[in-house]
Specification:
By secondary structure, the protein is an alpha/beta fold. Helices cover 33% and strands 23% of the residues. The strands form 9 sheets. A 5-stranded parallel sheet has the order 5-2-1-11-22. One of its GO terms (biological process) is aerobic electron transport chain.
Length: 433
């Protein structure tokens, strides 16, 4: 394989960073290829942890990965930027201008050449262009957004304490993000009661809105029912079969005109890939902006362009698999990154990439420290079964530990775990400022 081969990976989420790490170790260190990771944010955080950042129960110092230092340690390079265009004829991606904190232009438009391009830009909540949602709602799709919500949460909690007013938080979206955030907020305020404001839970008014007939619609009905019961026991008002049509600073408006008042509004309904992918470079995308890929994870229009994770629309085929696109989950992203990491180097040498086959391990849902549920997948001894309680919580925690092991190796991941536990002993369990 020629040293000139340039592999560019856009997006440093679960799939993108895992792939860059693997290719950097196998190809970059050997000089067989130049691997470049492009992302607009300087650090990586496991996306299923974003709700803990938003609620203030996560110390990101022990959880985030700095792209620059990780790249230096693992044989690839990191370039800061946000993709805005794709020139397939010249095999270049276009990065938009970057501004500094003072609003002045920091970097002009740049072009990054590639021989193989991997799109791994992840996903974001879909506001369906509803009036007011983008203007007044918080989103929990990235670390900066989660941190911004946490800052707003502190301000509203202070206002509530000083004025002895209610603190009304409304979350639109009863999927995994909305439900996980709801449970984590309950835990945050339960712990906050021990830091000088014992009446805070009494002033807290929490509402979760779901358009469908039940929360966690992707899970079995009994998991949905148990989850709703748990949330209601924690003090959440759960509204199902409730359609939001717009939002303003007073709250969400239902299709019947009724106002659901709120001081902090969160939009966690629906999922789509970033808008910059819509029809980019003439590639086929679906209504959710996802790039349609073949069984090899390559696009139909250009074999040099791959897509994986949440921003890819992959239709599996085979015995025992439903004919529908794979869901945007961490498990799918992890398996696709591992598959491409095993075969991309050989493909650059002229060999074919075998079809990707997804093994469904099931799905896990953690309700903070209160409970957890798991729907087992199509493989293993207990196909299609349900687990809950401590075992499900432990299994959910192991997903993150496996992610750490893949990025850092066993030894360093163990050290990071120890540092995380020690850090939890010396400081408060929630962010107080």
């Amino acid at each position: 394989m020629s040293r000139a081969n340039r592999i560019v990976i856009v997006g440093g989420g679960i799939a993108g960073l895992m792939l860059a790490t693997r290719l950097g170790r196998t190809l970059g260190r050997a000089g067989a290829a130049r691997v470049t990771l492009v992302d607009s944010h300087p650090t990586h955080l496991w996306k299923p942890m974003l709700h803990t950042v938003a609620a203030g129960t996560c110390d990101v110092a022990h959880s985030q990965v700095a792209y620059l230092s990780h790249a230096c340690s693992n044989g690839f390079t990191y370039q800061a930027g946000r993709m805005s265009g794709l020139d397939r004829e010249r095999r270049e991606i276009v990065l938009e201008e970057m501004e500094g904190h003072d609003g002045k232009r920091l970097l002009g438009e740049r072009r990054v050449p590639y021989d193989a391009l991997v799109l791994a830009l992840g996903s974001q909540a879909d506001d369906a262009s509803l009036p007011g949602v983008r203007d007044v709602c918080h989103f929990i799709d990235s670390q900066p957004q989660a941190a911004e919500f946490n800052a707003a949460l502190h301000c509203e909690a202070l206002r509530s304490a000083v004025n002895d007013d209610a603190l009304r938080i409304v979350i639109a979206g009863g999927g995994t993000t909305g439900v996980a955030l709801a449970a984590e907020l309950s835990r945050t305020f339960a712990m906050a009661a021990g830091y000088g404001d014992p009446q805070i839970c009494e002033r807290l008014k929490l509402t979760l809105i779901e358009r469908g007939p039940r929360v966690l619609g992707a899970f079995p009905p009994d998991v949905s029912a148990s989850t709703q019961d748990q949330l209601e026991q924690l003090g959440f008002r759960v509204l199902t079969d409730t359609r939001v049509v717009c939002a303003d600073r007073d709250g969400f408006y239902r299709d019947d005109g009724q106002l659901i008042p709120g001081d902090l509004l969160v939009w966690a309904a629906g999922v789509k890939a970033p808008d910059c992918l819509r029809g980019i470079g003439g590639l086929t995308t679906n209504a959710a902006n996802q790039v349609v890929v073949r069984a090899t994870l390559q696009t139909a229009q250009d074999e040099r362009i791959f897509a994986l994770g949440d921003c890819a629309s992959f239709m599996p085929s085979g015995v025992g698999q439903d004919e529908c696109a794979l869901p945007p989950t961490a498990q799918v992203a992890t398996q696709q990154a591992a598959h491409l990491g095993r075969h991309l180097g050989a493909w650059l040498e002229g060999r074919a990439i075998p079809p990707f086959a997804y093994r469904d391990p099931g799905a896990l849902m953690s309700l903070s420290g209160y409970n957890a549920f798991g729907a087992l997948g199509r493989f293993g001894f207990f196909k299609g079964g349900i687990v809950r309680g401590r075992f499900a919580q432990w299994s959910h925690a192991m997903l993150y530990r496996r992610h750490q092991h893949a990025l850092h190796g066993f030894a360093r991941a163990t050290v990071l775990l120890g540092a995380e536990k020690l850090g939890g002993l010396r400081g408060p369990r929630i962010r107080l400022a």
